[in-house]
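Let's see one such:

===
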Amino acid sequence: MKNNEKCLKCGSTSCEIKTMAIPTKKLGEAKISLDTFYLKICQNCGYTEMYSAKVIEKVKKPVKNY
């Protein structure tokens, strides 16, 4: 996740990234777990994008056998 991209709403390049733990529940399971999410918040207008840390970590890991 890059923090130098433009805001989708106002076009500003100033943003802040915060980490948040949110309780989640998978379909068909009674168990609730805490998952980590990243919040990308525009400093100009407050527009917020939320990204799952599980998805971000998969992108950062190199692909083996290539």
Q: What stands out?
A: Helices lie at 53-60. The CA atoms of residues 27 and 33 lie 12 Å apart. The two ends are 23 Å apart (CA to CA). The mean pLDDT is 83.
